[in-house]
């Protein structure tokens, strides 16, 4: 009985400590929103010292930017690592970044990938996207399209637009798929998700798919509309395609002046852009 009472006491004490830390963190956020960064920092450091993961991240950020305290990358890394070790996925991703850049710690690509992987496994969408990019390009890690596709799927499922486009592009090219064949149905689905959220390159690909009837019934009017959306956002390949549609009269009345206008826009932009359309 006595042992039970002691355990109950420590459990209640622990809960009380957690509640107090959360209160300090919340009050710190309130002061920060009001522009009082020093008072915010003083509250956050109290919560951080009690093990509050988000407070530890907030303290680290203050040392990064030097707002409430003098900038100190070593202290920033120390507090960010504490937060990461408390399973804060955002902090885990940032620790990966700090290892990659050598900020507050010796540069270490292996540790960077380890922490990005930890964050990704714990559901951090940005880390999932970043791992997809690393495995796609073969930078830091060996190139592996299957693993790249896996992480793009995870990030795309969280609604990350670049991941949705990258995933669609891999399906479109048949990269990382089980049989190495194109999967136009999935390519269209993920490209459309990105296009609807104003990803200009995805809009261009959707235009091409409607124009060629690839993965969807041919629809020149839809092709024109999506191509125009992409072109108006400054995507060079769409501008050239739109120029050609005006010249041929595809889904729109022939208009040499508009054709010349979009060709001129293409010539202005073509050398400024990466037109390989590789996942980024």
Task: Report what the structure shows.
This protein is mostly helical. Among the domains are: 125-183, no CATH class; 198-280, Serine Threonine Protein Phosphatase 5, Tetratricopeptide repeat, CATH 1.25.40.10. Helix content is 72%, strand content 0%.
Q: Remind me, CATH topology of the domain at 198-280?
A: Serine Threonine Protein Phosphatase 5, Tetratricopeptide repeat
CATH structural architecture of the domain at 198-280: Alpha Horseshoe
Protein structure class: mainly alpha
> What is the ordering of alpha helices and beta strands?
HHHHHHHHHHHHHH
Number of strands: 0
Q: Determine the fraction of residues in helical runs and give it as a percent range.
A: over 70%
The CATH class of the domain at 198-280 is identified as Mainly Alpha
Q: Helices, strands, pairings?
A:
Blueprint lengths: L1 H32 L3 H13 L3 H13 L7 H13 L3 H13 L7 H13 L3 H13 L7 H13 L3 H13 L10 H12 L4 H13 L7 H13 L3 H13 L7 H14 L11
Fill in the keyword field for this structure:
280 residues; mainly alpha; elongated
Summarize, please:
With 280 residues, the protein is mainly alpha-helical.
């Amino acid at each position: 009985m006595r042992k039970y009472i002691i355990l109950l006491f420590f459990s209640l004490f622990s809960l009380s400590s957690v509640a107090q830390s959360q209160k300090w963190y919340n009050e710190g956020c309130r002061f920060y929103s009001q522009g009082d960064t020093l008072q915010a920092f003083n509250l956050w450091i109290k919560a951080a010292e009690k093990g509050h993961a988000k407070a530890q991240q907030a303290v680290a950020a203050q040392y990064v930017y030097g707002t409430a305290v003098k900038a100190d990358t070593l202290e920033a890394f120390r507090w960010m690592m504490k937060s990461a070790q408390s399973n804060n996925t955002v902090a885990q991703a940032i620790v990966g970044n700090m290892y990659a850049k050598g900020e507050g710690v010796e540069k270490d690509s292996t540790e960077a990938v380890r922490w990005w992987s930890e964050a990704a496994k714990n559901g951090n969408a940005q880390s999932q996207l970043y791992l997809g990019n690393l495995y796609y390009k073969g930078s830091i890690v060996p190139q592996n399209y299957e693993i790249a596709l896996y992480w793009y799927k995870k990030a795309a499922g969280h609604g990350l637009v670049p991941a949705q486009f990258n995933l669609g592009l891999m399906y479109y090219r048949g990269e990382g798929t089980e049989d190495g064949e194109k999967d136009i149905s999935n390519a269209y689905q993920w490209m459309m998700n990105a296009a609807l959220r104003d990803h200009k390159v995805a809009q261009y690909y959707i235009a091409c798919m409607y124009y060629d009837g690839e993965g969807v019934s041919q629809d020149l009017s839809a092709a024109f509309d999506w191509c125009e959306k992409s072109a108006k956002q400054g995507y060079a390949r769409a501008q050239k395609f739109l120029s050609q549609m005006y010249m041929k009269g595809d889904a729109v009345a022939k208009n040499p002046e508009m054709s010349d206008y979009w060709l001129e826009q293409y010539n202005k932009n073509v050398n400024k852009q990466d037109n390989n359309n590789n996942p980024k």
